[in-house]
């Protein structure tokens, strides 16, 4: 089978991206990060997702972005709550982690080269997203070009890296709809920027609101609520 690296955060989008990779016939290797984020529940969820969707191997990479701070997710800055969807579409929010996807993709690139695979999946989305510059098609395209200049395999012509972004043009509702069709159990995912210690979502941060909006547009409630009922 073809091999693919899948960046797996433990959230709704990355779980769907993993399911899509499997549906396309890839043997999946999942990569998550303990990067100094304010909540570790997403790593527990990533482990659940990896097991549920049957990845070949799941690794958690340790890096410490708290040394730099600059984000509500990696320093003691309050997570914005109850912002309107219109507000979310303007400017780059304080939950943006500087260079996060650039860093994550670099690790994925290294693992892809050692596994002799050319395929990396990342669940970035440029429609229902919170203004992050590293979720845009322009960034992915530029990174893919750079990556093929940066490795031994790329220079020798034995590997041409492709970064798959199957969710990039989908609304949150469309992402959920596709995931449900592929059997994703969204009750084991975690999207909240500021969950309680046991992982219950706050329901008020940008990520929670976009997630709730997606399920609402499909006429259903978020299955994660059953986990805490």
Task: Give me the CATH architecture, please.
Answer: 3-Layer(aba) Sandwich
CATH topology: Rossmann fold
User: Strand sequence of the main sheet, in spatial order?
Assistant: 3-2-1-4-5
Radius of gyration: 17 Å
Order of helices and strands: EHEHEHHEHHEHHH
**Number of distinct beta strands:** 5
CATH superfamily: HUPs
Q: How many distinct folded domains?
A: 1
| Classification by helices and strands | alpha/beta
- The coarse overall form would be globular
Number of helices: 9
Percentage of residues in DSSP E strands: 5-15%
Largest sheet: 5 strands, parallel
| CATH C-level label | Alpha Beta
Distance between the ends: 41 Å
* Uncertain parts: none
Helicity level, as a percent range? 25-40%
Q: Oligomeric state of the chains?
A: single chain
Mean pLDDT: 91
Question: Would you write up a description of this structure?
Answer:
The protein is α/β, with parallel strands linked by helices and 229 residues long. It has a single domain (2-227), classed as Rossmann fold, CATH 3.40.50.620. The chain contains nine helices and five strands; from the N terminus they run βαβαβααβααβααα. A five-stranded parallel sheet has the order 3-2-1-4-5, with helices on both faces. Strand 1 (2-7), helix 1 and strand 2 form a beta-alpha-beta unit. Helix 1 crosses helix 7 and helix 7 packs across helix 8. It is globular, with a radius of gyration of 17 Å. The N and C termini lie far apart (41 Å).
Keywords, separated by commas or semicolons:
229 residues, alpha/beta, Rossmann fold, 9 helices
């Amino acid at each position: 089978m073809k091999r693919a690296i899948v960046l797996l955060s433990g959230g709704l989008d990355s779980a769907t991206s993993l399911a899509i990779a499997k549906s396309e016939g890839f043997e999946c290797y999942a990569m998550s990060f303990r990067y100094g984020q304010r909540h570790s529940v997403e790593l527990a969820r990533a482990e659940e997702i990896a097991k549920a969707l049957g990845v070949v191997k799941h690794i958690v990479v340790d890096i410490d972005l708290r040394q730099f701070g600059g984000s509500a997710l990696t320093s003691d800055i309050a997570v914005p709550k109850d912002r309107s969807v219109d507000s979310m579409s303007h400017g780059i929010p304080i939950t943006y982690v500087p260079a996060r996807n650039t860093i994550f993709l670099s690790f994925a690139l290294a693992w892809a080269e050692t596994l002799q695979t050319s395929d990396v999946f990342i669940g970035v989305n440029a429609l229902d997203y919170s203004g992050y510059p590293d979720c845009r098609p322009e960034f992915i395209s530029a990174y893919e070009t750079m990556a093929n200049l940066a490795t031994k395999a790329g220079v020798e012509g034995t590997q041409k890296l492709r970064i798959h972004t199957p969710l990039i043009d989908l609304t949150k509702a469309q992402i959920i709809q596709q995931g449900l069709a592929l059997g994703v159990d969204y009750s084991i995912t975690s999207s909240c920027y500021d969950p309680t210690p046991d992982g219950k979502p706050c329901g008020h941060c940008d990520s929670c609101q976009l997630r709730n909006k997606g399920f609402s547009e499909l006429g259903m409630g978020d299955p994660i609520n059953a986990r805490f009922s």
